[in-house]
Amino acid sequence: MTPLAFFSMSPMELLIVGVVAVLLFGSKLPSVARSAGKSLTEFKRGMRDMQDEFHRTVQAADLEESARKRMGDQSATPTASPDPDDLIAESGAQGAAVSPPTGPAKV
Predict the structure, then answer these.
(1) What is the pLDDT of residues 47-72, one digit of tens each?
(2) Alpha-carbon span 90 to 103, nearest angstrom
(3) Higher pLDDT residue, 21 or 49?
(4) Are 29 and 22 in contact (CB under 8 A)?
(5) Cα(39)–Cα(33) distance, rounded to whole angstroms?
(6) Which end of the chain is more exposed for a tag (fewer CB within 10 A), N or C?
(7) What are the backbone angles phi and psi of residue 93, rounded to the nearest 5°?
(8) Do residues 32 and 25 make contact, with C-beta atoms less than 8 angstroms apart?
(9) Dihedral, CA atoms, 75, 77, 82, 84, nearest 10 degrees?
(10) How far is CA 61 from each of CA 65, 68, 71, 75, rounded to the nearest angstrom?
C-alpha cells in the first residue's frame, strides 16, 4: 500500500465532505474558503522566504570558505624575506646616510 493511497478520496467521499462543509459553514463558505486560500498563500510565501534565506546563508558560507582557502593557499607559499645586508646596502647607495645628533638636546 502506497503512502498516498491513504489520502486518496473517491468522488463519493468528496461529495460527503462538501455537504458537511455546506452544513457547517452555510453562507459563510466563500469567505471561509477565501480566508483559507489567503492563509495558505501566506504560509507558502513564508516558507519560500525561509528557503531563500537558508540558500543565501549557505552561499555566503561557501564563499567565505573558498575565500579562506584561497587566503590559506597564498599564505602557504613561501615569501622571500629581504636580507638585512641588502637593506643596508640599498640605503647607503641612496646617499641617505644619517649621522647621530651631537651636543645637548634642546627642549
Answers:
(1) 999 999 999 999 999 999 998 888 87
(2) 29
(3) 49
(4) yes
(5) 10
(6) C
(7) -70, -25
(8) yes
(9) 80
(10) 6, 10, 15, 21
